[in-house]
């Protein structure tokens, strides 16, 4: 009896070549007996967009479509390829599907397994469910960031924001910072107090400790990259952070705050301190206008 094997690889998204982190975005499976590829990938990219606000979504989608088209064509006409070419799938994929050249999408090393008596569809579903999470959902299915920003503005209005006549260089909503490479970084607002304080909301009410760690390291890397801009333009990055609702994640949350605070240009404001922070903003604006 012929033993059936399958070989599979995980397609990973790597946001930055400097950070050794990645997100599973797709699964490629090759069934050796039928010589058929199966490719399944994330359709909405919500996990990536949630962790990386500046993700090149159009580029990723184009890569995924090209990979899918090529593999579909291979399934229709495998007579073009020799058995020798298909023996080393890593080389085959690099040559015909996705070159190993440091792009944002990369296939992991291939793994081989026994199909046993399971159908190809069962193998497909098992591997996809094991390695691909279609999206990230918070416990209340609502992202924290809009709530943090809304609460901040409610407090600012409560303490007299609407009664102050200010200019954009003193107080500005939806501020965009552009670094020397031309990359844009979005902030919820900016206000003047000796330094120009750029406010960014970050929610940590995620499903697991790894998601919290991934998000913390992502922002730590981002603000590390923006240190030159902070020094040259006298900027400070004020981070409004939301706490997890699960007590089991509090330890990882505390570690995330410690990591973010390592940057001298970052100030962390937790949700319970938003009122105090709002008073500070209003007083600074008012004092600046008086002078």
Can you give a write-up of this model?
The chain is α+β, with helices and mostly antiparallel strands and 291 residues long. It has two domains: 5-131, no CATH class; 144-290, 3-Layer(aba) Sandwich (Trna Endonuclease, Chain: A, domain 1), CATH 3.40.1350. The chain is built from ten helices and ten strands. The strands form two sheets. Strands 1, 2, 3, 4 and 5 form a five-stranded antiparallel sheet that branches. The protein has a five-stranded mixed sheet with strand order 6-7-8-9-10. It starts with a strand and ends with a helix. This is DUF3037 domain-containing protein.
Give the arrangement of secondary structure elements.
Blueprint: E1 5-13, E2 23-31, E3 36-41, H1 46-51, H2 57-76, H3 83-87, H4 89-96, E4 105-107, E5 111-114, H5 120-131, H6 144-158, E6 171-178, E7 184-193, E8 195-203, H7 209-225, H8 227-233, E9 235-242, H9 250-261, E10 266-270, H10 274-290
Parallel strand pairs: 8-9, 9-10
Antiparallel strand pairs: 1-2, 1-4, 1-5, 2-3, 6-7, 7-8
Protein name: DUF3037 domain-containing protein
InterPro entries: DUF3037
Pfam families: DUF3037
Query: Which regions have little confidence, pLDDT < 50, spanning 5+ residues?
Result: 136-141
- CATH level 3 topology of the largest domain: Trna Endonuclease, Chain: A, domain 1
Structural class: alpha+beta
Number of strands: 10
Whole-number average pLDDT? 85
What is the H-and-E element order?
EEEHHHHEEHHEEEHHEHEH
CATH class of the largest domain: Alpha Beta
The level of helicity is 40-55%
The percentage of residues in β strands lies in 15-25%
Count structural domains.
2
Give the CA-CA distance, first to last residue. 89 Å
Total count of helical runs of at least 4 residues: 10
């Amino acid at each position: 009896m012929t033993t059936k094997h399958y070989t599979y690889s995980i397609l990973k998204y790597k946001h930055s070549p400097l950070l050794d982190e990645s997100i599973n975005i797709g699964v490629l499976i090759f069934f050796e007996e039928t010589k058929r590829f199966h490719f399944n990938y994330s359709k909405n990219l919500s996990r990536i967009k949630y962790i990386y606000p500046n993700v090149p979504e159009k580029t990723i989608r184009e890569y995924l479509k090209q990979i899918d088209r090529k593999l579909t064509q291979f399934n229709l006409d495998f007579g073009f390829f020799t058995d020798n070419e298909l023996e080393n799938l890593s080389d085959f994929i690099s040559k015909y599907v996705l070159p190993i050249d440091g792009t944002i999408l990369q296939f992991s090393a291939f793994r081989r397994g026994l199909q046993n008596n399971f159908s190809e569809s069962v193998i497909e579903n098992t591997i996809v469910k094991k390695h691909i999470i279609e999206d990230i959902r918070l416990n209340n299915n609502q992202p924290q960031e809009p709530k943090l920003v809304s609460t901040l503005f409610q407090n600012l209005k409560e303490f007299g924001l609407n009664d102050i006549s200010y200019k954009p260089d003193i107080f500005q909503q939806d501020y965009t910072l552009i670094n020397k490479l031309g990359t844009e970084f979005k902030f919820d607002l900016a206000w003047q107090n000796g330094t120009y304080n750029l406010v960014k909301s970050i929610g940590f009410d995620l499903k697991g400790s790894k998601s919290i760690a991934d998000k913390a390291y992502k922002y730590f890397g981002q603000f590390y990259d923006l240190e030159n801009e902070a020094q040259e333009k006298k900027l400070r990055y004020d981070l409004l952070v939301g706490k997890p609702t699960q007590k089991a994640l509090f330890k990882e949350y505390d570690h995330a705050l410690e990591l973010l605070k390592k940057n001298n240009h970052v100030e962390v404001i937790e949700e319970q301190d938003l009122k105090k922070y709002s008073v500070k903003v209003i007083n600074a604006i008012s004092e600046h206008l008086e002078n």
